[in-house]
Write a structure and sequence with these properties.
Cofactor: Zn(2+)
Pfam family, one: ADH_N
Shape: globular
Mean pLDDT: 96
Low-confidence stretches: none
Strand content: 25-35%
Keywords: Metal-binding, Oxidoreductase, Zinc
Number of domains: 2
Number of strands: 17
GO molecular function: alcohol dehydrogenase (NADP+) activity; zinc ion binding
Structural class: alpha/beta
Order of helices and strands: EEEHEEEHEEEHHEHEHEHEHEHEHEHE
Distance between the termini: 19 Å
Organism: Alkalicoccobacillus porphyridii
Length: 346
């Protein structure tokens, strides 16, 4: 077994503590990665707090991982020692179902293996990127382009692909009007990527506090949803709405902003069920959809797209000692726009 330093949490109301975890010895196609940076995703917080169901504590979260290959298994062909690589929200899948064969491993019919809070094919619980090392089968590792710094690359492995995938799937591009709900870690990436794709981007946020940032990131318009005339003014406007908010909102109000055949895609994952009036869909043949991350092939495509268009997240690098405080700040929307842990501080 390989010993790794980590930060773990022992329960939904517990603080993070210093821990030592075991990483498996390398199998034939495994890659050992020395983690340099790990992003903090809202999903980490939901899981650590037990908001998405039962959790097998102790838990080491983190599925925005950037690092360097330090060892490879004897049959690894895609990577070599010294390669700059990333790991996202999953570390394995069945590899044989229809969805996996289509490169959509995130929708594996047998269930993909999440980077943390899952169980791997060896029957062991998976632990994430708030650690110094991780062992992953090579098919679930991606190459980080040379012109993207590792600290900035980390959030792309979740926030980047979570927004890139639906923008591609629903055709964001020239001539399309795209609205982004929320200007947090996911939202600011959605704005940057949609703008680079050529879409006309509008931010819908509770206030105008981040308007200057939104316009700098590529938004053409920025509206406060707390203003009573916003929904009237923008009714029937957008071809695509990406909702990044992980909280309950008035879905009917946002659906009213879609044009004929428009689609609202939820990428935020609130802990409570959402409700809507089906007439909000029927009236203009609108669609309400959801989207996860992308598959491994699409994740690499996203990284290459971001490298080509010089897109990186806005980050705040923190020490591992500051994880609990960072969680509180995320919940208070007090981050611009993604916390990234320097794992040398573990």
């Amino acid at each position: 077994m390989i010993k790794a330093k980590a930060r773990a949490v022992d329960g939904p109301d517990q603080s993070f503590r210093v821990a030592e975890i075991n990483r498996r010895d390398l199998d034939l196609h495994d890659v050992l990665i020395e983690i340099k940076y790990a992003g903090i995703c809202h999903s980490d917080i939901h899981t650590a707090h037990g908001e998405w169901g039962e959790v097998n504590y102790p838990l080491v979260p983190g599925h925005e991982i950037a690092g360097v290959v330090t060892e490879i298994g004897p049959e690894v062909t895609q990577y070599k020692v010294g390669d700059r690589v990333g790991v996202g929200c999953m570390v394995d899948s069945c590899g044989t179902c229809e969805n996996c064969l289509e490169g959509e491993e995130q929708y594996c019919l047998k269930g993909n293996v999440p980077t943390y809070a899952g169980v791997d094919k060896y029957g062991e619980p998976t632990q994430g990127g708030y650690s110094t090392h991780i062992v992953v089968t090579e098919g679930f590792v991606v190459k980080i382009p040379d012109n993207i710094e590792l600290d900035a690359a980390a959030p792309l492995l979740c926030a980047g692909i979570t927004t890139y995938s639906p923008l591609v799937r629903w055709g964001a591009g020239p001539g399309k009007k795209v609205a982004v709900v929320g200007m947090g870690g996911l939202g600011h990436m959605a704005v940057k990527i949609a703008h680079a794709m050529g879409a006309e981007v509008t931010v819908l946020s509770q206030t105008l506090n981040k308007k200057e940032d939104g316009l700098q990131f590529g938004a053409a318009h920025y509206y406060a949803t707390s203003e009573p005339d916003t929904f009237t003014q923008l009714a029937g406007t957008f071809d695509l709405i990406i909702n990044t908010v992980s909280a309950e909102i008035d879905m009917n109000a946002y659906l009213s902003l879609l044009t004929l055949n428009g689609t609202l895609v939820n990428v935020g994952a609130p802990g409570e069920p959402l409700s809507l009036n089906v007439m909000s869909l029927i009236s203009h043949r609108r669609s309400f959809a959801g989207s996860m991350i992308g598959g491994i092939r699409e994740t690499q495509e996203m990284l290459d797209f971001c490298a080509k268009h010089d897109i990186t997240p806005n980050i705040e690098v923190i020490s591992a000692d500051d994880i609990d405080h960072a969680y509180k700040r995320v919940l208070a929307s007090d981050v611009k726009y993604r916390f990234v842990i320097d794992t040398s501080t573990l």
